Amino acid sequence: MSQKNSLILLFIAASSALVFAYISQYFFGLQPCQLCHYQRVPFFLIILILAANLRFKKLRNLAMPLCLLMLLINVVIAFYHVGVEQKIFAGLSSCSSNLNSFSNIDELRQALINAKAVRCDEPQFIFLNLSMAAWNLIYCSALALYLFLNLKSRTNIFRTIDQKQVNRSRK
Fold first, then answer.
1. Which SS3 state, helix, strand or coil, does residue 1 take?
2. CA–CA distance from 51 to each of 7, 30, 82 (Å)?
3. Nearest-angstrom CA–CA distance, 28 and 167
4. pLDDT grade, residue 131 (50/70/90)?
5. Which end of the chain is less crowded, N or C, counting CB atoms within 10 A of the terminal residue's CB?
6. Domains of the chain, start order
7. What single-letter DSSP state applies at residue 90?
């Protein structure tokens, strides 16, 4: 697939992820937690990078690696989010519950009054036994793998390294 077509596909994929997130939020009432908001940022940055790619021709060679970096950042955030949901990692203090840290009922009452309604450690929606964060992890991993393989086939860096090794072995 050509670089242009790959970038168009990536634009559609990033836009679709955001559209899905906002439809889930505004039409189905699934309020996002703090980590969900963080997972949206790389998709916005991908769209921004691709828009800048249209305007500035010098960014053509940087668009795919930068988009790959954004996807990898999203994979890390999604992995952490899934870990928080599975109680493997401690969540952010702004979106996880820790009911054991209160010494009296007044502290607990005050914490409940100040608490945000959406928690990162409890998925709001499960589909095929996976949370939305887990689906985002799969989605971004697949896109990152596709982009990496596409980028690898386009660059001569890997071919140059392989060619140097072949030349050394012949000597």
1. coil
2. 10, 29, 30
3. 60
4. confident
5. C
6. 3-170 (1.20.1550.10)
7. -
Reported as a single tens digit per residue, the pLDDT across 95-108 is 555 555 666 777 66
Q: 36: burial class by Cβ within 10 Å (0-12, 13-18, 19+)?
A: buried
Mean pLDDT, rounded, of the chain: 78
Task: State whether the Cα torsion 78-80-86-91 is positive or negative.
Answer: negative
Closest CA to 134 of 71, 82, 65: 82
CB 154 within 8 A of CB 3: yes
For the segment 28-79, what is each residue's pLDDT rounded down to a tens digit? 887 888 788 889 899 999 999 988 888 887 777 788 888 899 999 999 999 9
Is-contact 151 64, C-beta < 8 A? Answer: yes
pTM of the model: 0.72
Cα gap 101→107, rounded to integer Å: 9
Q: List all residues 6 or more positions away from 25 whose beta carbon is below 8 Å from its beta carbon.
A: 31, 32
Mean pLDDT of 104-121: 65
Tokens read off for 169: 């072995």
